[in-house]
């Protein structure tokens, strides 16, 4: 029984191998539209999503969030108050006495204080005292430690509370300093990001030369770390064993003391030893598959080198994702701020004589004078926004629709990127004479082909993933609401449900990713593609596991190299530890030198993640094509292998030479 027969025998549970198709020469060009019903549903949903946005635009008013309002509901800094951008609280202490200060901040800071100088001091419509203040979020907050004359019971605790609020909200000075730092260092940050881009690209392109040694070094490094862990655990166990420190002498509530008993280190030693043994056995018995994984990594590096445009496709995905998120955020903001303003009667002290006869909290007109000599300080103040009306009555449903639209569109954009890249890389693998047979514009052709024929299939896969993600969101919401009243059994059940949904989401992402590869190659619908991909992988499960882990290890090292390298360089430069670069390369003088460092590190991480996501997709695509190649072809003249010579040598296979070549050899 040959190698291929062994693979087939071991994978009978995964279905029958793919049959030879003489007309197949790579990604099929003559294909039809797939999952048309889901495509229509997706387009109808998008139209509905646009209608929700229009409704939100018509009824919403984001000025509620951007600008403060006075007691009459007028916006500060707009219209007739254009020259009055700040809101002044005539008696900030009534704010503190009547409500929690931070609660007032989160509720648009609607404190029951007179805010319009229209009446006299006797009617309490003018401030009875003034304190030095500073603007924060368009509102004036006092910063003085002086106690107002008419409130002798107020102590410095209130001043400390106000100072704390200012420290939290008034970030004007900090914002100016941050802006100055970015203004002085933005070109150096761009330079750091350019370094990250170059390092990521070089790492991927050089894998064709160093993939084998690098994987070997990384595996030996993991073995060395585990070996050191075993040695350290043994030494700690031996010392504690000689001292007689046992777990029987330990209280269960003293968790920190577990490191001082011998059983803890013995358990850690056993776990590390088992891991070390498993890794050594894998190296011994799976060395052939590790060699195949390394060869596929080299092929992926060559494919990326032939189609460098694919490395910059994540920019398209990023822009589309940004559009989806921005549209949802604006729609949610406009929906949340929909409704007409409502005004009610209010008095500073409802217990005073004369105020008992007034119907406080009754609707009123802010433009009409609310003069009542029997109730001092009676006025019409802004309360909130009405919950009546078409948009307001269905506000919750519209927000749910918006969240569903956010998840579905985001997942569809990600699916589009995966399918487009898979189509481009599949055209590389199925080109018999590389690079001559590679299409001229493989990425553009794959993009047009995917949008034209497979929008419905991508929407189908994205919808399945979206439903699972929505279920996780609902579960997290329920868990948050019931967290204070749950018993241990209910918490355990909730945790199990959350774990199951997390695993289901991971599995669906894995299945969708491989289904999109099959869609890009064969042009079939989502269900058939998902089934064929899953069966193909199950027939080669050991190869899947080895390739996945080797790729993960290699890409983790690549990210660590890029992000760590950029982070170290940024730290030494922006902290002023690199000197003598000349006048044109002087270190910028910064208020917060860690700010450009963190910006550079974060940008480097996103750049490396974008590049390596493309490379990972390339590896997965070539791997599925490689498995298909093994099952479709046998190396004969009619059915030659499309894989590289390196893979043929590892597998001990070869393509039959044409008759002319045989005669020439003789």
Automatic annotation (TrEMBL):
InterPro entries linked to this entry: Choline_transptr-like
Catalytic reaction annotation: thiamine diphosphate(out) = thiamine diphosphate(in); choline(out) + n H(+)(in) = choline(in) + n H(+)(out)
Molecular functions (GO terms): antiporter activity; thiamine pyrophosphate transmembrane transporter activity
Record-level GO cellular component terms: apical plasma membrane
Signal peptide feature range: none
Positions of transmembrane segments: 36-59, 186-207, 214-231, 265-286, 307-330, 412-432, 453-475, 515-538, 550-574, 594-627
Keywords: Antiport, Cell membrane, Glycoprotein, Membrane, Transmembrane, Transmembrane helix, Transport
Entry membrane topology: Multi-pass membrane protein
Keyword match Zinc: no
Compartments where located: Apical cell membrane; Cell membrane; Membrane
Pfam families assigned: Choline_transpo (PF04515)
Keyword flag tRNA processing: no
A GO biological process held by the record: choline transport
The family this protein is said to belong to: Belongs to the CTL (choline transporter-like) family.
Function: Choline transporter that plays a role in the choline-acetylcholine system and is required to the efferent innervation of hair cells in the olivocochlear bundle for the maintenance of physiological function of outer hair cells and the protection of hair cells from acoustic injury. Also described as a thiamine pyrophosphate transporter in colon, may mediate the absorption of microbiota-generated thiamine pyrophosphate and contribute to host thiamine (vitamin B1) homeostasis.
Protein name, UniProt field: Choline transporter-like protein
GN (gene name): SLC44A4
């Amino acid at each position: 029984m040959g190698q291929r027969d062994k693979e087939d025998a071991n994978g009978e549970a995964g279905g029958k191998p793919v049959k030879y198709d003489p007309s197949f020469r790579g990604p099929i060009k003559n294909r039809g539209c797939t999952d048309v019903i889901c495509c229509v549903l997706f387009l109808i949903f998008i139209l509905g999503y646009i209608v929700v946005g229009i409704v939100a635009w018509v009824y919403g008013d984001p000025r509620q969030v951007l600008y403060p309002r006075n007691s009459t509901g007028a916006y500060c800094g707009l219209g007739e108050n254009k020259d009055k951008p700040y809101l002044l609280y005539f008696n900030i202490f009534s704010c503190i006495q009547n409500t929690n200060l931070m609660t007032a901040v989160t509720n648009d800071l609607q404190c029951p204080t007179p805010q319009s100088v229209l009446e006299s001091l006797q009617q309490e419509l003018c401030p009875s005292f003034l304190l030095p203040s500073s603007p924060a979020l368009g509102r004036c907050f006092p910063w003085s430690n002086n106690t107002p004359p008419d409130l002798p019971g107020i102590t410095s605790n209130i001043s400390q509370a106000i100072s704390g609020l200012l420290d939290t909200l008034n970030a004007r000075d900090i914002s100016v300093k941050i802006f100055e730092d970015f203004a002085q260092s933005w070109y150096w940050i761009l330079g750091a990001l350019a370094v990250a881009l170059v390092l990521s690209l070089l790492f991927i392109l050089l894998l064709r030369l160093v993939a084998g040694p690098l994987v070997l070094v990384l595996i030996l490094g993991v073995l060395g770390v585990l070996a050191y862990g075993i040695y350290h655990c043994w030494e700690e166990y031996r010392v504690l064993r000689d001292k007689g420190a046992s777990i029987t002498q330990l209280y269960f509530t003293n968790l920190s003391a577990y490191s001082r008993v011998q059983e803890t280190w013995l358990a850690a030693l056993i776990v590390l030893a088992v891991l070390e043994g498993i890794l050594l056995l894998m190296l011994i018995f799976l060395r052939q598959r590790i060699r195949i994984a390394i060869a596929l990594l080299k092929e992926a590096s060559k494919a990326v080198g032939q189609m460098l445009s694919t490395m910059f496709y994540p920019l398209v995905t990023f822009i589309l994702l940004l559009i989806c998120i921005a549209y949802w955020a604006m729609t949610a903001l406009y929906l949340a701020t929909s409704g007409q303003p409502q005004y009610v009667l209010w008095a500073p002290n409802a217990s005073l004589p004369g105020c008992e006869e007034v119907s406080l909290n009754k609707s009123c007109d802010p433009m009409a004078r609310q003069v009542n000599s029997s109730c001092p300080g009676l006025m019409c103040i802004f309360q909130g926004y009405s919950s009546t009306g078409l948009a307001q009555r269905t506000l919750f449903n519209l927000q749910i629709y918006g969240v569903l639209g956010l998840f579905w569109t985001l997942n569809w954009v990600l699916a589009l990127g995966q399918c487009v890249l898979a189509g481009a890389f599949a055209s590389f693998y199925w080109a018999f004479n590389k690079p001559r047979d590679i299409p001229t514009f493989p990425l553009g052709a794959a993009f047009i082909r995917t949008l034209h024929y497979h929008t419905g299939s991508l929407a189908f896969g994205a919808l399945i993933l979206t439903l699972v993600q929505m279920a996780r969101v609902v579960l997290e919401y329920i868990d948050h609401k019931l967290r204070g009243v749950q018993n241990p059994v209910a918490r355990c059940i909730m945790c199990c449900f959350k774990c199951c949904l997390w695993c289901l989401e991971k599995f669906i992402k894995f299945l969708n990713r491989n289904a999109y590869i099959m869609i890009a190659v064969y042009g079939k619908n989502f269900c058939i593609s998902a089934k064929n991909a899953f069966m193909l992988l199950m027939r080669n499960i050991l190869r899947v596991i080895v390739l996945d882990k080797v790729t993960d290890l290699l890409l983790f090292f690549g990210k660590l190299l890029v992000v760590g390298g950029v982070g170290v360089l940024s730290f030494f430069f922006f902290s002023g530890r690199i000197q003598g670069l000349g006048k044109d390369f002087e270190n910028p003088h910064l208020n917060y030198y860690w700010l450009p460092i963190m910006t550079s590190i974060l940008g480097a991480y996103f750049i490396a993640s974008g590049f390596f996501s493309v490379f990972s997709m390339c590896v997965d695509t070539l791997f599925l094509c490689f498995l298909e190649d093994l099952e479709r072809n046998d190396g004969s003249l009619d059915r030659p292998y499309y894989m590289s010579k390196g893979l043929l040598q590892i597998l001990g296979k070869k393509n039959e030479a044409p008759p002319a070549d045989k005669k020439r050899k003789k």
